[in-house]
Amino acid sequence: MAGIPDIDAHKIYLGPELPKLDMSASTVKPSSKGPAPFDGTLAVTGPTFLGFHAPLAKGVLNVGAPGLGGFVPKVPTRAVDIEGDVDITGKGPIALKVTGFTKTIGSVEINGGLQVNGHASWLSSIVATTKLFSVDHPNIDNYRLNHGCLEGPEHAIYVRGRVSVDGIIELPDYWQNFVDKESITVTLTPIGAFQELFVDRIEYGKRVYIRNQAGGKIDAYYQVHAERIDVNKVVVEGVKGDDNDLYVGDKIENDQDQEDDGDAQYRTTDI
Questions:
Q1: Which residues contact 245 (CB under 8 A, 6 or more apart)?
Q2: Beta bridge partners of 28
Q3: Structural domain span for residue 161
Q4: Is 176 domain-assigned?
Q5: Residue 48 in contact with residue 60, Cβ under 8 Å?
Q6: pLDDT per residue as tens digits for the range 202-261
Q7: What is the pairing mode between strands 207-212 and 168-170?
Q8: Is residue 173 part of a domain?
């Protein structure tokens, strides 16, 4: 078979001569002044095979990792590099399937559902109208069990348990540099009988001391809450559409000024 080193042409059409199935004709129509104005057009009616793809091709356009012809791109494993927008109109049940790690630089908008069959990890905040879990019902077949998340005007954490005898609640070691010590609150539920329990003192970030006013026993369930300091505070009321409307800016001291000043964008709630 004779080889053709180079082909110079305004357009290359690969397909049957009759009937000619040139699907590019409506886009690159010739004009009365001459041929179509788009030099370098390629129209192919059959399957296309590029690169070193799997032996059993599954599409009309089949692109594999580099390796044929001795060419190695700057990113050796990259088969396709696109500079420009991509519009995918699915014809089957799966419009886009990706196997392997996917990285997106920029925002992603999904007008529909998102299903993750595995672990999902975020390095920033998740913002939603509601947050809930949905699992198979543990007692009733073919039912789901749904619970919503308790919400509040802060990024808070808690520990809970039972305190007795010495009346000391030991807090986790990591609370030392993780929570605002001034935000610590304690809720007590006496067990078995009424007890005049109160918080005697908090050894900040380390332990809570509980006492009984009547001098009797201490036996109670507890919950201890505190606000995190490793993230910005929640903006309870922010300007709609502002990129920073989830986090605290400069705290506004005068509410009257905020109502009148278009530059005043944040109002926070003290905890």
A1: 235, 238, 239, 265, 266
A2: none
A3: 156-227
A4: yes
A5: yes
A6: 997 799 999 999 999 999 999 999 999 999 998 888 887 765 555 543 333 444 443 443
A7: antiparallel
A8: yes
Report how far apart the first and last C-alpha atoms of the chain are (Å, whole number): 82
CB atoms within 10 A of CB 184: 18
Query: Which pLDDT tens digit goes with each residue over 109-163?
Result: 888 888 888 888 888 778 888 889 999 999 999 999 999 999 999 999 999 999 9
In a domain, 114, yes or no: no
Distance CA 195, CA 202 (A): 20
Short-list 197, 255, 249, CA closest to 222: 197
- Model-level pTM? 0.64
pLDDT in tens, 61-90: 988 877 667 778 888 888 888 999 999 999
Domain count, the chain: 1
Whole-number Å distance between alpha carbons of 43 and 35: 15
* pLDDT of the residue at 261: 39
Three-state DSSP state, 223: strand
Structure tokens at 188: 């007590």
DSSP state for residue 268 in the 8-state scheme: -
Within-domain flag for 181: yes
Q: For residue 162, how far is the Cα from the chain centroid?
A: 36
